[in-house]
Specification:
Number of helices: 4
Protein name: Transposase
Radius of gyration: 17 Å
Shape: elongated
Oligomer: single chain
Number of domains: 2
Helix content: 40-55%
Length: 93
């Protein structure tokens, strides 16, 4: 694993930890300024990848329930049969 992959994996670990940047850096032994750089870098890479949003609907579902998972981890659950409403929410990101 190269440094880029290592630090980006640390950013993902921090996102899931629920800790502040400072607290995570203190535990991991990383300088806050260095870590902030890698957080910005991960956001730039995410934006360059197109920022795809996963849209899930079970094949067997009879209901019009959708789940939108934004790249930052926010999950939006929607019960609608109005696809224009769904499209508007997907395009918010």
């Amino acid at each position: 694993m190269d440094k880029n992959e290592f630090m980006l994996s640390r950013v993902e670990s921090w996102k899931q930890s629920g800790l502040s940047q400072q607290a995570y850096c203190d535990q991991a032994g990383i300088k806050l300024g260095t870590f902030s750089y890698w957080i910005r870098k991960s956001k730039n890479e995410e934006a360059q990848s197109g920022g795809f949003i996963a849209l899930k609907k079970p094949v067997f579902a009879l209901e019009n329930k959708y789940e939108i998972v934004y790249p930052n981890g926010v999950v939006l659950r929607l019960d609608t049969d109005n696809l224009s409403e769904l499209s508007a929410l997907v395009n918010l990101y």
